[in-house]
Amino acid sequence: PPQTATVLHPPDLPDLNPEFATQVLEGLSAHPKRIPSTWFYDHRGSELFEQITELNEYYLTRSETALLRSLHDEFAQLPAGSAVIEFGSGSSRKTPLLLGALNAPASYTAIDISGDFLRQSVRGLQLRFPQLDVHALEADFTAPLHWPAALEADVRQQPRIGFFPGSTIGNFTPEQAVRFLHGAAQFLGPGAHLLVGVDGTQDKAKLIPAYDDARGVTAAFNRNLLTRINRELGADFNAQAFRHVARFDPAHSRIEMHLLSPRPQTVRLLGQSFTFAEGETLHTENSYKYPLAMFQRLAQSAGWTPQKHWLAADTDVALHWLQR
Ligand code: AVI
């Protein structure tokens, strides 16, 4: 009989993360095989993602950054003394474009699951904006968030602006996106605004190279997941024996990334074996591409009122301005 998924703690895996182990075991047992894309972002994965954002083919970052820059005067007209709260702040590269445009913002709160990145980026921002009250919350913002008591009273008195750039919302399923937007509404409170970056590109000729670049950086990013599983969970994936695949699914309006096994192979992980048939794939990421009206409906169903949106000059990358 198949054995139950027991998490082992052999002495050579001191950092074994039980949630990672469980999700990988479950995902490899599923049909089709899948692993949530959140596990891409170990140290190396975050480095590779930074490299992706600099690729010619990856239009998203460049477009959104130019769009944010072009909105300087628009942001400058918002009420003074606001509290900016960023979800999944990562390296906070785009944050200065908002903070620097706003009229004397009072505070900035960065929320990220990776404490490492969080500490670094928050320190940098504090140096750059010495007047700003800067806070870091190490938390998983896909689960319900609560303010630490020491912060809540202050922030609730300031005009609140949630910031979720990068089209990261596209990596959630639509159900997860609604749950996130609903949670953000609760967390930010009545009267708050949310500025969200959303890619609506439907053109395959732009999408495929953006997710399968000529230099193979995205392929390395995708395969790094297997390297991470080997290192942290003691698996024996041969990462080079999997092909990086990026496909556009117009029915779901999403780009999918997979790792394809060109020949049959078996992988061992935590006492179990998982067999890949010839041509079988491991689904590692969805990146939903919401056209304007589609995203507005999604936001409305989560309790937000779409007030404005701005489109990039040369792509379908948008910034949505929502009010609670
Ligand atoms: C972080 N996220 C918005 C990226 C995206 O475009 O979905 C992750 C990524 N995957 C492949 N390339 C970049």
Describe it.
- There is one protein chain.
- By secondary structure, this protein is of the alpha/beta class.
- Helices cover 36% and strands 24% of the residues.
- The protein is built from eleven helices and 13 strands.
- The protein has helices spanning 18-29, 43-52, 59-70, 72-76, 95-99, 115-128, 149-157, 174-188, 204-211, 217-233, 292-301, and strands spanning 33-34, 83-87, 107-112, 133-138, 160-164, 193-199, 243-249, 254-260, 265-269, 272-276, 281-288, 305-311, 317-323.
- Strands 4-3-2-5-6-13-12 form a seven-stranded mixed beta sheet, with helices on both faces. Strands 1-11-8-7 form a four-stranded mixed beta sheet. It has a two-stranded antiparallel ribbon with strand order 9-10.
- Helix 2 runs antiparallel to helix 10 (217-233).
- It is globular.
- The structure holds N,N-dimethyl-L-histidine (AVI).
- N,N-dimethyl-L-histidine (AVI) binds at residues 52, 60, 166-168, 170-171, 211, 218, 285, 287.
- Residues 52, 60, 166-168, 170-171, 211, 218, 285, 287 line the site of N,N-dimethyl-L-histidine.
The low-confidence parts are: none
Nearest-angstrom radius of gyration? 21 Å
- Overall mean confidence score, pLDDT: 94
Shape: globular
Structure ligands: N,N-dimethyl-L-histidine
**Proportion of beta-strand residues:** 15-25%
**String of helices and strands:** HEHHHEHEHEHEHEHHEEEEEHEE
Total beta-strand segments:
13
Strand order of the largest sheet: 4-3-2-5-6-13-12
Summarize the structure.
Its EC number is 2.1.1.44. The protein is an alpha/beta fold and about 325 residues long. It has helices at about 20-30, 45-50, 60-70, 70-75, 95-100, 115-130, 150-155, 175-190, 205-210, 215-235, 290-300; strands at about 35, 85, 105-110, 135-140, 160-165, 195-200, 245-250, 255-260, 265-270, 270-275, 280-290, 305-310, 315-324.
